[in-house]
Specification:
The chain is an all-beta fold. It has one domain. 0% of the residues lie in helices and 59% in strands. It contains no helices and 4 strands. The protein has a 4-stranded antiparallel β-sheet, with no helix packed on it. Strand 3 and strand 4 form a beta hairpin. The protein is flat. It starts with a strand and ends with a strand.
Length: 34
């Protein structure tokens, strides 16, 4: 299950509910968990 929240206009935070890792994107557009 993923939790999606708005941080600012055009910016969202996506977090795994159980793992508590955030899904992020680097400058090249690749996704990673942090």
């Amino acid at each position: 299950i993923m939790e999606i929240r708005t941080v600012a206009v055009g910016i969202v935070a996506i977090k795994g509910v159980e793992s508590e890792y955030y899904l992020a994107m680097n400058k090249e557009g690749k996704l990673y968990a942090k």
